[in-house]
Amino acid sequence: MKTARADWRYRLAVTSRAVAAVGGGYALAAGFTAAMSLLLAQCMPRVEAVITATMLAWLVYAAAAGWAFYARTAWGAWGGTLLPALVLGACAMAPQWMKAAA
User: Fold this and answer.
1) CB-hemisphere CA count at 13 Å for 16?
2) DSSP string spanning the chain?
3) Percent of the chain, pLDDT > 70?
4) Cα(53)–Cα(74) distance, integer angstroms
5) Beta-carbon count within 10 A of 7 CB
6) CA 77 to CA 70: how far, in whole Å?
7) What is the C-alpha separation between 31 and 50, in angstroms, rounded?
8) pLDDT grade, residue 101 (50/70/90)?
9) Rounded CA gap, 98 and 94, in Å?
10) Does residue 61 carry a pLDDT above 70?
11) Rounded to an integer, what distance in angstroms lies between the CA atom of residue 79 and that of residue 100?
12) Do residues 53 and 40 touch, judged by C-beta distance below 8 A?
C-alpha cells in the first residue's frame, strides 16, 4: 500500500489559507463592523448600530473563513479576504478623511 505524503508546498498552501481565514477574516469582519456601524447609525441609535453590525460581522467572518478554503489558489484566498477588508476600511475612514480635508 502506498502512503500519501504531503510535500512542503502543499503544507505551506494550507497554512497560508488558514492564516488568510483567521487573519484576513478578522480584518474583513473588523472593516465590515466599522463601515456598517457608520451606515446603521444614520437610522438608529449608535449603540444599537454597533451591536447590530458586530453581530452581522460574525456571518462575514464565517463567510471569509469559508472563502479562504474555497478559493482556487492561496493568492485568491488572500485577495478575497484582504481586498474587501481594505475597501471597507477605506469606507469607514472616509468621514475622518473628509473632515481633515475640509
Assistant:
1) 15
2) -PPP---HHHHHHHHHHHHIIIIIHHHHHHHHHHHHHHHHTTTS-HHHHHHHHHHHHHHHHHHHHHHHHHSSSHHHHHHHHHHHHHHHHHHHHHHHHHHHH-
3) 96
4) 28
5) 7
6) 8
7) 12
8) confident
9) 6
10) yes
11) 30
12) yes
Q: Which three cell numbers stand for residue 9?
A: 508546498
Q: How many CA atoms lie within 13 A of 38 on its CB side?
A: 14
Classify each residue of 39-59 as buried b or exposed e, where b means 16 or more C-beta atoms within 10 Å of its C-beta. ebbeeeeeeebbebbeeebee
Q: 49: which 3 cell numbers?
A: 448600530
Predicted TM-score (pTM) of the model is: 0.86
Q: Is 18 exposed, middle or buried, given 0-12, 13-18 or 19+ CB atoms closer than 10 A?
A: middle
